[in-house]
Amino acid sequence: FQEKFRLIRANDDAAVLDALSFTAPKIRLLRSLTVEKKNSVQVLDFAAFSEPEYDLPIFCANAFTTPAQSIVVLDLNPLYDITEDRDYKDKYYRNLMPLIQKYSELLPWGGKITSESLRFFSPIVIWTIFEPTERNHHVLYSALMDYYKAWLQLTDQAAEENNKTKVVRNREAQHRYLTWRAEKDPGFPLLKKLIGESYAKVSLLPTFTIFTHTQFMLFAELLVALIFRIW
């Protein structure tokens, strides 16, 4: 992933793009894409997927910031429709409800979204639009760290699924999510403008790179640095 995208140059010379990814035990893919155009636009697209042997939610953090406003989605996206699969909902979200209770007033609901998108959101989703002040960005960074730690804890506790049928079902569920992101991602028009349509489509799909432990630690440091720079 890094090798493919490290030489990408934005069509707009004022924009800077950074892409990082890795895979590790239990983690099929963790990847981030940041776009920064000085005094104009800042974008973070960050996602984490478990191996299909685990039915874990997909960690998602998307932020689009201009001098006027910030638009954010932060969630542990369910693999399955939680309006129908109550067991899945209880398994992963019952103990996480304090998270949304903590941040719902600090990061108020951003308004109407499509019913199609709602299928991929969890009960703890943060979908918000706010003025990009230092205070609001501090709250958002705190929320991102809390949600990411929650996902890592779920990953650490997850038991491997040995039923091949269920593993295939998990893989197909991840594919449905990725297809939705590739076709409906609200950041696609911006990426298309910055780097062209072909690179924009590929950047929203999974690509895997195996990192050593040292490289993983470097990735973590770089990711935190990028988030601090954006927020």
From TrEMBL:
Keywords: Oxidoreductase. Pfam families: Fe_bilin_red (PF05996). Gene3D superfamilies: 3.40.1500.20. One of its GO terms (biological process) is phytochromobilin biosynthetic process. One of its GO terms (molecular function) is phytochromobilin:ferredoxin oxidoreductase activity. The keyword Transport does not apply. Belongs to the HY2 family. This is Phytochromobilin synthase.
